[in-house]
Structures are given as C-alpha cells and as structure tokens.
Specification:
Shape: globular
Bound molecules: zinc ion
Order of helices and strands: HHHEEEEEEEEEH
CATH topology of the largest domain: Metal Binding Protein, Guanine Nucleotide Exchange Factor, Chain A
Radius of gyration: 18 Å
CATH class of the largest domain: Mainly Beta
Strand content: 15-25%
Number of domains: 2
Helix content: 25-40%
Number of helices: 4
Strand order of the largest sheet: 3-4-8-7-6-5
CATH superfamily of the largest domain: Peptide methionine sulfoxide reductase
Largest sheet: 6 strands, antiparallel
Distance between the termini: 15 Å
Number of strands: 9
C-alpha cells in the first residue's frame, strides 16, 4: 500500500513543480494538494467515532448530524472513505438514525449480529461497523431499512471533488 501510494505521488509532484512555474499557480496547487492525499487518508477517528466504528457502539437516537440531512450527494465510510450510500436512497424513517433502503452495489456486508437476532452491517471495504439492516417494515417499496450511525459516515456533496475522489478510490480498489 505504502509503495503504491509513493509511486502514485511521483507524477503529481512533477505536475506540481511545473504548475508552480505557470500563472494561476495557487488554484492548481490547491487541487494537487487534495490529489496528493493518499487514498486511505481519512482524518483519524475521534473517541465517539472509534466507539461506533471499531467497538460497534450505537450513537444516541436523534443525535447524529445526518439524521435529517437531505442534500444530494454520497455518504462515504468515515474510516476508509469508500462510497456506501447515495442520498437518493435515503428516507426519513423517524427512527432517529439515518435510514437508507439500499446500499451502493457491493459497498455493505451483512453479518449476523452478536445478539443473535439482528443483522449487522459493516463497510465491505474496511469492516467498520455501520449499524443494522431491517427488512419487512414497509417503509419504502424496497422494504429495507439500513439503520446507520451518522458517526460511521462522512457526507460528500454531489459533483464535489471529494465525491469524485471517493468514486476514484472505489475504482482503484475494484
Ligand atoms: Zn470502510
């Protein structure tokens, strides 16, 4: 992984140096600074995020920042940055956590929960805990509710550089 990242950085560095000699350098430099970020570089998890993502805790209902978020975009894994859910599949279940009736293809893995009853959902890429999935509740036509902790995700706006980077990350991992 490290070797791969290093290799990838070389041409960007060259571009950066050439760019610094051109007019409009500031704009180009900013763009390269983002691109230079290694694919796995999400900010370190804080204590609450680690409790949920690594130790499978559940954030208190109605406390999450994405509970009512409605803007178009993509929800990515807070730990590894892979795209998980589209805002198009988000709905307001009133349950207190962000709810989606579908995941992006291949983004989420289902596991029997340790409680022996529920189905746990984790990021298919890094295994980080997301929440639980329920079926047969009748909320939407798909009859599925991914009940996801806000702390397990980060939101990137539709059409943003961050969204493009997340999908590029997915492509390079495929
Ligand atoms: Zn992940």
């Amino acid at each position: 992984m490290k070797c791969h990242t290093h290799f990838k950085d070389v041409p960007l560095l060259v571009v950066s140096i050439i760019a610094s000699l051109l007019p409009g350098f500031t704009l180009i430099k900013t763009r390269n600074a983002e691109a230079l970020m290694p694919a796995s570089a999400m900010p370190p998890l804080n204590k609450s995020e680690a409790a949920v993502i690594l130790n499978k805790a559940t954030e208190p209902p109605f406390s999450g920042k994405y509970n009512h978020q409605g803007e178009p975009g993509t929800y990515i894994c807070r730990q590894c940055g892979m795209p998980l859910y589209s805002s198009a599949d988000k709905f307001d279940s009133g349950c207190g956590w962000p709810s989606f009736d579908a995941e992006l293809p291949g983004a989420v893995r289902r596991l029997p929960d340790a409680d022996g009853q529920r189905t746990e959902i984790v990021c298919a890429s890094c295994g980080g805990h997301l929440g639980h999935v329920f079926e047969g509740e009748g909320f939407t036509e798909k009859n599925t509710r991914h009940c996801v902790n806000s702390l397990s995700m980060a939101f990137v706006e539709k059409g943003s550089e961050a969204e493009k980077e997340a999908f590029a990350r997915q492509q390079s991992a495929a």
